[in-house]
Write a structure and sequence with these properties.
CATH topology of the largest domain: Rossmann fold
Shape: globular
Strand order of the largest sheet: 1-2-4-3-5-6-7-8-9
Number of domains: 2
Structural class: alpha/beta
Mean pLDDT: 83
Strand content: 15-25%
Low-confidence stretches: 1-53, 319-330
Largest sheet: 9 strands, mixed
Helix content: 10-25%
Distance between the termini: 58 Å
Order of helices and strands: HHHEEEHEHEHEEHEHEHEEEEEEE
CATH architecture of the largest domain: 3-Layer(aba) Sandwich
CATH superfamily of the largest domain: Alpha/Beta hydrolase fold, catalytic domain
């Protein structure tokens, strides 16, 4: 039971190469008829041996504020749905990133306006995550009302994907939605995850829940990041954030980041904790909302401003240099030809009985998989639409990704 108090860098990845190249990949006719220019660019990027997944030079300190994308906003005056369970909304979205986009809805705390958390909107959107901040129907709304407000905000985000005239029409990945909130809003975000376990991530900013909360209220599988403040007198960590962490199941990925010498509002902006609030928050969403494993090790790097930092997550070994892969993973392989038509070959340096492959689209969908049974394996790709794909070759010790193109 919770004892309440009074409520008072750029990675070298294809998605960063710009909208012109992305449009070329996504349009089959352009790919075929403009083949000369397209292939020249493709071959310069992908020819030769495999390009293994590399997370260099990604570190916490390489995360910038703002990110690389320009940001625009939508409000109800632009046609955004007027949700009955919240009062007013601002939707921040990247204007020059490549869809589909993941998204997050965020709600403020007790006797607080939407503006109290709005700094998260442009920050996350500039890193490619659509972010909707909302107000509440009553400034005195309890965490359960704020839960309902977040769930209603998700309805609005979902409708933007099908609203005629929306700049986000057909651009949202509705399987990748997160929630967040501050103080009572943080409590509401946790409750929303319990109500909708299909959510992908939670960010609880100095969360507050009352004395009636039990483990059943926090029994959900949604990865949860909890920010807290060492000197918080409104939601003292020992009575709130720490108990959130303890009551969330051990089977759920979770992390608590307590910022030293900070107060209740330290996580209202990504600039809190000398900017580490935003860096950890973005890394959490990149890992669990966008499934970008490069950000996982960053979550194990305790920030210098932490007075308490605890997590149960583990990260796969991700090689940071191609030489590391050749020496350590026992996977290193060639993929050819790329671009390809009809079929593609995997040539594996070392093979075992458990060597397999997966082909995924750039949105993460698995489109093919199988066993690698010989040093050179031919894979039929005739059924794949033209575009960019990721080949992942996996052993019991490591995995290695390579980008390739189907014409």
């Amino acid at each position: 039971m919770i004892f309440g108090t009074e409520p008072a860098l750029l990675s070298i990845r294809i998605r960063y190469l710009g909208p012109l190249f992305q449009r070329a990949m996504n349009k089959t006719k352009q790919c075929v008829h403009a083949r000369g220019t397209y292939l020249l660019l493709c071959l310069s990027l992908f020819a030769g041996t495999s390009i293994a997944q590399s997370c260099d030079p990604l570190t916490l300190d390489s995360i910038t504020d703002p990110g690389i994308y320009s940001v625009a906003t939508l409000t109800e005056s632009n046609g955004l749905r007027n949700g009955p369970d919240y009062a007013g909304a601002t939707l921040y979205y990247p204007t020059n990133a490549t869809p589909p986009f993941a998204s997050i809805a965020m709600v403020p705390g007790f006797i607080s306006f939407q503006s109290s958390i709005q700094d998260w909107g442009p920050f996350l959107a500039s890193h490619g995550i659509v972010t909707m901040t909302i107000g509440t129907n009553s400034l005195f709304a309890d965490p359960y009302d704020r839960r309902d407000a977040l769930l209603d905000a998700i309805v609005t985000i979902t409708e933007e994907n099908t609203r005629s005239g929306s700049p986000l029409f057909g651009s949202l990945d509705l399987d990748k939605i997160a929630v967040g909130g501050w103080s009572m809003g943080g409590g509401g975000a946790q409750l929303a995850a319990t109500a909708d376990p299909t959510l992908k991530a939670v960010m609880a900013l100095c969360p507050w829940l009352d004395t009636q909360t039990t483990a059943a209220d926090l029994d959900h599988p949604v990865p949860v990041l909890i920010f807290s403040a060492e000197n918080d007198v409104i939601a003292p960590p020992a009575a709130h954030a720490d108990i959130h962490y303890d009551l969330t199941p051990e089977t759920t990925s979770k992390l608590i980041f307590e910022i030293e010498n900070a107060d209740h509002e330290v996580a209202n902006s990504p600039t809190g904790g000398q900017g580490y609030v935003g860096k950890i928050g973005l890394s959490w969403l990149k890992q669990f909302l966008l499934d970008d494993a490069c950000y996982c090790p960053l979550l194990l790097d305790t920030p210098s401003v932490a007075s308490n930092y605890l997590t149960n997550i583990t990260c796969p070994d991700i090689p940071t240099r191609i030489n590391d892969i050749a020496m350590d993973s026992h996977v290193s392989y060639q993929l050819y030809p790329s671009p390809c038509e009809g079929s593609i070959n995997i040539n594996v340096a070392r093979i075992s009985e458990r060597t397999t492959y997966e082909i995924r689209s750039v949105t993460g969908e698995k489109v093919s998989s199988g066993r690698v049974e010989a040093r050179t394996t031919n894979i039929d790709v005739r059924d794949l639409p033209p575009g960019l794909y990721l080949m992942n070759v996996i052993t019991d010790r490591a995995s290695e990704q390579t980008k390739f193109i189907v014409l």
